[in-house]
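Late entry, written up from scratch paper. The run itself happened at the end of the previous shift, but nothing got recorded in the book at the time, so transcribing now.
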Amino acid sequence: MSVYVLDANMISYILRGQETVINNAMSAISNGHDIIISPIAYYEVKRGLEAVGSKKRMREFIKLYSMLGVGQLDNNVLDTAVDIWVKQKKSGRATGDADIFIAAFCVNHNFALVTHNTKHFEDVDGLTITDWCE
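Output as recorded:
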């Protein structure tokens, strides 16, 4: 059994009813896999919905994260994020902190990241990435 972690773009696709993403999520669940929301993606989506005042989407988001659950950050995840950041800095690549925290959360727990922004994460060692848009 795998655990899939949703990035913010996957949450947005689900909230907008994107069929391919929803079908892939349903297939994962029916095959016994768990799906959770990255704590950073939770922050990103909620702040975006609050900023635009979308009450309908906020209700849908609350239902989604209540059903799936939201992961938690801890010191081990933060230490993994530091390691990823240092490695990227040394290689001259700069990824935003949000993506580093999301990757660190997944790597630290050996979870698979579900994102459409695969290029943001492709250089993170030990990270399994899947794109449910394809």
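DSSP finds six helices and four strands in the chain.
(Scratch paper discarded after transcription.)
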